[in-house]
Amino acid sequence: MPPQIAPPFGYQEVVPLLKTHRLRLPAAGDVPEFLRRANAVPISHTEFQPAAREYSIVFTTGDEGKSYAVVAVLGIAANENLFFADGAWAGGVYVPAYSRRYPFCMARVTLNKVEQQDRLICVEKAAIDDAAGEAMFDAQGQPAQKWTGIERLLTEYEADLERSREMCAVLADYGLLEPFTMQATLNKDKGGGTMNLTGMQRVSEKNLENLNAAQLKNLMRKGFLARIYLHLLSLENFARLLERKAARQPTG
pTM of the prediction? Predict the structure, then answer.
């Protein structure tokens, strides 16, 4: 059986990157199509600090609590990115690495129904353009200078995502995550009505206080405790997100 490659969130069809591929790369500042209408984007371990300044950082689960992911909230309604306007990400706002790495990714590969441990550098198939695309390697197979920077971003980001996954697993294991809903009421002149953002989880401060010394020490040692506080502080950004929503002209 040929290897099965699961594309990450938002990607259509990814294929292993070959040295012979020529690619159409996004211009600086371009935002992938799927993120223009996504109300959340995954973030990694080292992104907590820059992301917490602008976004609310929350936890989500797609498998009923078996595993969790960390995301930055981009919008209040479905298919709404309030940080994308006029063809670009909002100026002066941190752009998550998930957007900056596109059209590349490190994908999980399943061979004969067994998920392989190593990730494979892949690219969105639609970005391959043998006629007008840009080469990442020369005729001798040596990497172009641009590719060296991209490869570093991909490998560092993937390792960083692993630390995020580990953090989520530890928080779930310690019983720290609890579901919550964010309610927002828009002014009548902005369309009015109450909106509920659901499907989010946050760290319970009460449960955090009840951890034993060994658990707290483990959270500190791994650098997770600092990120818990960044996450909790970032929830204040929901008010700023609502301001962004209110600043948009009502549609329809």
Answer: 0.88
